[in-house]
Amino acid sequence: MAAVKSRQIAGLKSSKQTSMLDEFISPVKRINVPNHILDTKIFNKLSQNSVTKVQPDVVHFAGYKLNKTQKTSIKICNASPQRQNLHIIPPATKYFSIHYTKPDRLVPGFTIEVVISFTPDEWRYYYDCIRIHCKGEENLIVPLHAFPVMDTSRFPRKLVFPQSGIRIGESSRKILPLYSHSPVEFEFQITVLQSHPSIVVSPLSGIVPGEGETDIAVTFTPMEYVTAHMTMQLVISQFNTKPFLCDVTASCSPSAALKLTKSVKDLDEMYRQTKLLDPRCLS
């Protein structure tokens, strides 16, 4: 028992001494290992240099869901007549990662497929890049972009009003909805490139609220028999967006009035052919 107690006392003394020494020892700091290639080389060439070609040269993840992984790929091809040795430097942030199988020898014409994975954790714009160190001074860079998008699937490229049923002075309306399925709001602006006095678009600008929708109304009000054409352009505040064009066609012809006149004449004819009941014939 005495020996056991002595060992316990010795252990307590040693632990106290160790804790006292820890107070005088500074914590270990992790230092990032320097990357000689990144520190000494410049990566600013897009798409292709004298020995290597990348397709596509820019990657876009347009629209995403939180904590859901999306994947796409690029192909790196040896476009030179000689065997090449490449260094593929992965993205720096945790949101992008790459996976590929590098051959022992990248012979002329051989292609490496690089799979890119993207996993977001909040609604915002993301950016990173893949760097490719090649022979020579022209090193390649592949930008990676990810961003929320607005749903424009119901904004048509061509809008046609029915040719019948619209009379002079009456109005016909079409509704074009714009959606935002994410908590991000988007601004939009409509420019009428080719106008017509019979066709009116409203509103011409506004905001699509997050997780909501905004309706664009196109109204056709003919004041004469006419076939009207109008072209409008939709621009939204979204990264890498392109203008959306919509051609509107509407017509008002005498056929609608002729149909109405014909229907009235048919009723008059039916009235004339119907024998009226004479009360004097009743007995």
Automatic annotation (TrEMBL):
GO cellular component terms, A-Z: 9+2 motile cilium
Domain of life: Eukaryota
Extent of the signal sequence: none
GO biological process annotation, one example: motile cilium assembly
Pfam family, one: Ig_CFAP74_1st
Protein name: Abnormal spindle-like microcephaly-associated protein ASH domain-containing protein
Naturally occurring in which organism (per UniProt): Ciona savignyi (Pacific transparent sea squirt)
